[in-house]
Amino acid sequence: MAATQVIRSEWTKIRSVASTVWTLSLAVVVTIGLGILISALSKNEFDNMSRQDKLSFDPTFISFAGMSLGQLAMIVFGVLVVSNEYSTGMIRTSLAAVPQRGTFLFSKIAVATGLCLAVGLVTSFVTFFLGQAMLGSHKAEIGDPGVLRAVIGGGVYMTLIAMFSMGVAAMLRSPMLSLGILMPFFFLISNILGNVSATKKIGQFLPDQAGSKIMQVVTPIDDDTPYGPWGGLGIMALWVAAALIGAYVLLKKRDA
After folding, report:
1. How far apart are CA 204 and CA 16, in angstroms?
2. End-to-end alpha-carbon separation of the chain, Å?
């Protein structure tokens, strides 16, 4: 089957599964809603902040506060896109129709990635503008240095989270096992490693912590991270590449 036909087939699969549409919608609503709420709260608390907190105040990054929960929906989306076919047994039919396993895997990931990027960029821009509206006089402008990079980076970050999840799901082949590993990893383990002084240096190199640097415009005063926004995004991209390569190698080696 030609690559264009495979891509068209994968687009039909994604579009026709209700759960994938719902999870993407949830990512949008949660990210925007929490961003608005936390931006409004930050505006009210600004006058009570310490001098150090005011110097580290990053209005752009604050509007992305909902990303930490929104990314969980992107993880679910990435897992479902890949592992749905394994849980239903449809994978055998798909691989019989597309024997070139690399073409099958990367067509699926390419279609899902394109969709995630479109949704991620729209979400990121809407979150930024609504968040800044809530911040009032403390807001940043899209033309300020580093702001456009951070807003576009927010969309790219959401996409990379989903891609990483797709790679892990393709390796594990089970939606429950994939979510059972990814959810605690991003929601608990990463936060614990990043906030405990003994493990902070390890936490800085995890995909979500490194990647989220792209959304920062103001560097906190006590920040000792050994890389900048682009370096952080590069580290996250390496994690994604490793997950996708692992998925490809295992798909080539084993039976459906």
Report:
1. 38
2. 18
Task: Provide Rg for the chain, Cα atoms.
Answer: 19
The pTM assigned to this predicted structure is 0.91
What are the tens digits of pLDDT across the range 37-78?
999 999 988 888 788 788 888 999 999 999 989 999 999 999
Residues 6+ apart with CB under 8 A from 130: 32, 35, 36, 39, 63
CA distance 93 to 98: 9
What is the rounded CA–CA span in Å between residue 69 and residue 157? 13
The residue behind tokens 């190698």 is: 249
Q: How confident is the model over 5-34, as pLDDT tens digits?
A: 878 877 877 877 778 889 999 999 999 999
For the purposes of burial, counting CB atoms within 10 Å of the CB of 189, is it exposed (0-12), middle (13-18) or buried (19 or more)?
middle
Task: Please give the helix or strand (H or E) that residue 222 lies within, else none.
Answer: none
Q: How many CB atoms lie within 10 A of CB 7?
A: 17
CB 77 within 8 A of CB 120: no
Handedness of CA 199, 204, 207, 208 (dihedral sign): positive
